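Quick one:
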Amino acid sequence: MEVYIKRNQGKDGENLIEKVVYVNRVSKVVKGGRRFGTAALVVVGNGKGKVGFGNGKAKEFPESIRKATDKARKNMKYFPLKKNRTFLYDVEGTHGAGKVLLRSAPPGTGIIAGGPIRSVFEALGVQDVVAKSIGTTNPHNMVRATFDALRQLDDIKKIAERRGKKVTDLYFKKKPNEEKNNKQ
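Output:
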């Protein structure tokens, strides 16, 4: 399976990364013979934390890819990233028989993920991540499980607000001497 990559300008003038994750030729048997159709799964992102996916069906490949791309652009959502390179914490997503584990990674690790999951991260703009797919190898279910995991991510500001702390308290650990001085 070959992945096609295109960079297009969105409505806002931002560069969009379009990746065709999966294309499939399907047929329907009718009285006169077989009718052929195509299906495509596309991931679109801006490389800065915004990504969406869509699938399209048509008689020809270019038309199904165009339909899938249009749906993906409409479904784009923002997902919070830590320093625009990885996730704040580890998450797990499921869809059907597929399960995806996403782990944040230190700088320089790169994208350690296979197949459709890798396409999502490249379009999202994640640079350092380790991902593991368990269960299904169906591209549709893997992409949906990845988006399920991404939906579970919260912004650092919301986490700090929930815990009643400042954002800087979550980033920096206090040294043991500072904790003793603060108690007195």
